[in-house]
Amino acid sequence: MAPPPEGSGWVLRRSFPSDIAALPAVMEWLSEGLRSRLSGALVLEAEIAVTEIFSNIARHGHAHLPPDTPIAIAVTWSEAALLIEAHSHDVRFDVSEELEERRRLMRSSDYSPLEHERHWGLRILANLVDQRGWSIESCLPDPGTRLIRLRKPSPAGAGPA
Can you say whether the dihedral through the CA atoms of 21, 26, 29, 30 is positive or negative? Predict the structure, then answer.
């Protein structure tokens, strides 16, 4: 995983099995780590982002892999940004491409969210990007490894609680 940004900040890191049943443990770890360090809506946004990314990797990206295949999550705070990184063994599901496809679909005049409820997680991620200032990128840094990076510039007053 990338080293922490320069300057003051902190990093939370942990790996979880790519079983959707691990999501409560992911959220407990994240909530404990964030609520003592951040304030305001940024905590909720980060929890939503991690929930959606972990769920997508576990349900789609790692569906063909054993459930103990790890998903490594890192949350880094710096004066510049909150950065969430998820490393997985999913080389097939590119969340950036899927997000763009979902945005195109949502802009269509005949789009009905109820007909696409399976993709609501991507709609939620699109809202974080479009309405809350997050960015999402996905890449293959090493053979057999995908990195999903979510970044939100640090707003004034959202820093350490």
Answer: negative
Contact (Cβ atoms closer than 8 angstroms) between residue 161 and residue 34? no
Task: State the pLDDT at residue 3.
Answer: 43
Q: CA 156, CA 40: separation in Å to the nearest integer? A: 11
29 in a structural domain: yes
* Count of domains observed in the chain: 1
* Residue 58 belongs to domain spanning: 9-153
Q: Which amino acid is at 44?
A: L
Mean pLDDT of 145-149: 92
Mean pLDDT, residues 24-43 taken together: 92
pLDDT for the residue numbered 155:
67
Q: Please give the residue that has the higher pLDDT: either 144 or 160.
A: 144
Residue count (the chain): 161
116-154 CB burial, b ≥16 within 10 A, e <16: eeebebbbebbebbeeeebebebeeeeeeebbbbbbbeb
Place of tokens 């789609």: 60
CATH (domain of 25): 3.30.565.10
